[in-house]
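Researcher: Sequence of Recombinase family protein follows. Predict its structure.
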Amino acid sequence: MNISFGYIRVSSKEQNLDRQYDALKKYVTDEKYIYSDKASGKDMEREGFQNMLKAMRSGDTLYIKSIDRLGRNKAQIKEYLEYFKRNGIRVKILDMPTTMQDYPEGQEWVLDMVNSILIEVYTTLAQQERETLLQRQAEGIAAAKARGKHMGRPKLELPKEWDELYKKWKKGEIKAVEFMNLVNMKKPTFYKKVKEYEASL
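Model: Prediction complete. Tokens:
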């Protein structure tokens, strides 16, 4: 028997699931097949969602209120749409009437076309989202540099004679205590600076 599942999600424990639950309950085979999560969409290991995936079989249908219930970003949504298509699971989205239509036997190709269009749209949106993010990062770095703000690893502040003394210390020409005295550092600070300096080499 093919089963109609429902999935509802809110981003935090303080939010309420009732609105989504009420919208889906008339579509599912039984209300026990409505799975839920109170978790961010970026969490790929949402317990309710993962349990639902394990229970679903080819020929089943998934109802969701809106497509962003699947995930937080376009790439994640695309990944799940492809998963459902690959596994023969139909996705019906209440906020997208085209996906809610039923097709006569022999016209399943229409459903396949709708799924393919959805995946194509979200592939494009995911790429645009990534390009926009990269562009914003580049603009942010450029703006920070224009203001004279250093980007990346903070510049290590050491006495000007450090390099020469460090080489002598490593060659055994001076003792660590002498090195500390010459740069006016206490033991914990000295070894912390040595560690930072060696990490920057």
